[in-house]
Q: What sequence folds into this?
């Protein structure tokens, strides 16, 4: 009489006893193998077999880890990851180490499907699990499974309601890259899952799995460590915060270890350009059969797909920082993290066939070459190869070779090259807590070939500060802080290769945007420069976030007047066109029009260099989208902005016109006859004379204007 309330109550009391027993101390993978019976309709039936997907053993065992708070598994479809981490984990927990569990599927529909097709089947086919199930009908419904030991398994989907308040000891999230980045405005799903387990301290565990579904946004990213993933959101973002494990195989021929790398690199296919060209004419199936073997990176041994099972059974996960030699000795310092992270490629996935991997890639390339559609390529990258997709457009904007690859060892700081015609400086004004002027100075040659001669930050004012130091600079509050730029740039000269000859800075381009107060102080500074006769040597600019395309580079307007009549010329810059042109110069391989000469950056090969690598990285802080609009993808982009401003300065001076270079003005002639070239003596005289000129009108028209 199972429906008798008394019998039910008695049953509930008795069934709680197993929960009080100590957990069965078996590895999770063992618990799964002993108890989870899988019988798919029309498929093979039997207990979960760890030797079929050996790469799932460690991730599954670490679900019981007390030193990790989460396990993150990235891999293509058909790896067997959901069985092991989902039904498998649940089975072990119910029978060996009970605790309430929540399983999140990407949608309500998927949750229902998962409950019916996978959980219910596991319960039906696995005798031990079936016996542990509660007897009352209310114990078993679509979204809640109640076991006799009191353990509850909830199968839900990511919404704030489903993910809030209730505590679970175990939480599993699947298909994570198909979730929203921000669940109902409350944050990312992974953080919400971690919150659910916090009350269980080290006994709690979150597991999350997905194939990578977020596109690559930074085409110039290069891994800083061997196991780093591209900087994308979603599951690879979690993986990057983990201890970053990758799966390694031992070559059956030469015994070298190598990574079963995500993607297709181990097949050593012809170049993608070649494949796109060939896709329409070759026999794709024959090609896929021919290339369906792995080339051992160490010795070039050819490894047939029949060897894969054995390589997987002998395979190993290594954290970032570890290497393994052919005598199986592991060395290095493993990266450590509270997240155990695993990234498996399709080449190792048990149920993905090598021939199919290659065939789908070629079919995708064929589709792309005929219709321009990248969807099949993206799908096979994500779900078969296990890698994030880089759009063809973005890949095209990547620089295979950039300024860092062709450093100019002739470049010296503070000294212009012999071919210099004039010098332009640009200043970025940063307000706020970390206020500073950042400036960059370029020597400009014929047709705007350029060389970096200085890049500096000014953080100190000339005002008194604490103790013996000067006060930090504050361009939004103190007018006099701007006068530092007059001395350091507007009146500055740089050494030339000629004996005792220096060249003046022809133009200083200054950004006036930013914090409240900066703009007005910039106008006031410009007015002081006008009184000193220096106004023509300074160009005030305002860069805009230009969401739409316009065809002008620089537009001048008069601003600063109290009643609308402006007395200060302000130059609005079009960032999109200027960035296009700076990048065109950066991608030139040989010196010539627009080419940039940069020194070798400071690094292991050049420990005494003065220019940090970040200088180069800042140029690649933005990428051009398909609409021709530049979008920022890295936090710092000063080099790029400063170079755009220098380019805008050159345009103002007319240096983009061919006739300018045919009959250059006196200040743009070769150094020997250039009117901006002076001796050190002349420089001192000019400086003293200019600084002595009044910076205020004799009768102060209005103190408030400045
Ligand atoms: Zn080999």
A:
């Amino acid at each position: 009489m199972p429906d008798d309330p008394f019998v039910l109550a008695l049953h509930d009391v008795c069934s709680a006893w197993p929960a009080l027993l100590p957990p069965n101390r078996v590895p999770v993978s063992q618990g799964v193998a002993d108890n989870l019976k899988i019988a798919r309709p029309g498929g093979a039936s039997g207990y979960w077999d760890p030797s079929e997907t050996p790469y799932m053993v460690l991730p599954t065992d670490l679900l019981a880890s007390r030193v990790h708070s989460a396990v993150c598994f990235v891999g293509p479809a058909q790896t067997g990851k959901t069985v092991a981490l989902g039904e498998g984990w649940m089975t072990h927990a119910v029978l060996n180490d009970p605790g309430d569990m929540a399983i999140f599927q990407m949608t309500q529909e998927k949750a229902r499907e998962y409950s019916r097709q996978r959980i219910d089947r596991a319960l039906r086919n696995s005798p031990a699990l079936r016996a542990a199930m509660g007897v009352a009908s209310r114990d078993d419904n679509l979204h809640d499974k109640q076991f006799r030991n009191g353990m509850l398994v909830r199968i839900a989907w990511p919404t704030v309601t489903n993910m809030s308040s209730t505590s679970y000891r175990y939480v599993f999230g699947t298909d994570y890259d198909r979730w929203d980045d921000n669940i109902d405005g409350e944050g990312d799903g992974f953080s919400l899952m971690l919150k659910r387990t916090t009350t269980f301290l080290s006994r709690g565990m979150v597991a999350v799995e997905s194939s990578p579904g977020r596109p690559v946004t930074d085409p110039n990213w290069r891994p800083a460590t061997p196991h780093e993933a591209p900087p994308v959101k979603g599951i690879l973002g979690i993986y990057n915060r983990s201890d970053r494990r990758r799966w390694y195989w031992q070559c059956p021929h030469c015994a070298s270890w190598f990574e079963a790398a995500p993607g297709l690199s181990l097949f050593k296919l012809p170049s993608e350009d070649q494949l796109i060209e060939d896709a329409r004419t070759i026999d794709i199936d024959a090609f896929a059969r021919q290339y369906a073997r792995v080339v051992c990176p160490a010795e070039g041994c050819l490894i047939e797909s029949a060897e894969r099972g054995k390589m997987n059974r002998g395979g190993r996960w290594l954290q970032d920082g570890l290497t393994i030699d052919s005598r199986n000795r592991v060395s290095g310092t493993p990266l450590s993290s509270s997240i155990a992270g695993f990234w498996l490629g399709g080449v190792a996935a048990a149920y993905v066939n090598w021939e199919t991997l290659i065939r789908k890639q070629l079919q995708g390339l064929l589709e792309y070459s005929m219709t321009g559609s990248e969807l099949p390529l993206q799908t096979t990258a994500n779900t078969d190869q296990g890698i994030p997709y880089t759009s063809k457009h973005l890949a095209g904007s990547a620089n295979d070779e950039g300024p860092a690859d062709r450093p100019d060892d002739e470049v010296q700081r503070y000294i212009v090259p012999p071919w210099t015609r004039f010098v332009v400086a640009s200043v970025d004004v940063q307000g706020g807590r970390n206020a500073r002027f950042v400036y960059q100075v370029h020597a400009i040659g014929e047709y705007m070939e350029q060389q970096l001669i200085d890049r500096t930050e000014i953080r100190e004012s000339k005002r008194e500060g604490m103790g013996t130091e000067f006060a930090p600079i504050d361009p939004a509050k103190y007018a006099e802080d701007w006068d530092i730029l007059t001395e350091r740039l507007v009146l500055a000269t740089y050494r030339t290769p000629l004996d005792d000859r220096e060249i003046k800075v022809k133009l200083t381009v200054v950004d006036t945007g930013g914090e409240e107060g900066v703009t007005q102080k910039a106008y006031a500074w410009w007015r002081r420069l006008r009184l000193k006769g220096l106004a023509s040597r300074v160009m005030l600019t305002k860069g805009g976030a230009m969401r739409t395309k316009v065809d002008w580079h620089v537009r001048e307007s008069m601003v600063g007047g109290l009643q609308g009549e402006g007395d200060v010329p302000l130059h609005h810059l079009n960032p999109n066109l200027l960035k296009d042109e700076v990048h065109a110069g950066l991608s030139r391989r040989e010196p010539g029009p627009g080419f940039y000469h940069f020194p070798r950056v400071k690094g292991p090969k050049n420990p005494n260099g003065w220019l940090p690598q970040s200088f180069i990285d800042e140029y690649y802080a933005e990428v051009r989208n398909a609409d021709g609009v530049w979008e920022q993808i890295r936090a710092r982009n000063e080099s790029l902005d400063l170079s755009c401003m220098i380019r805008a300065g050159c345009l103002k001076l007319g240096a983009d016109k061919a006739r300018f270079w045919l009959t250059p003005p006196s200040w743009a002639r070769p150094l020997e006859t250039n009117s901006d070239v002076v001796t050190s003596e002349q420089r001192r005289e000019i400086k003293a004379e200019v600084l002595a000129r009044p910076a205020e009108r004799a009768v102060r028209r209005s103190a408030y204007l400045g």
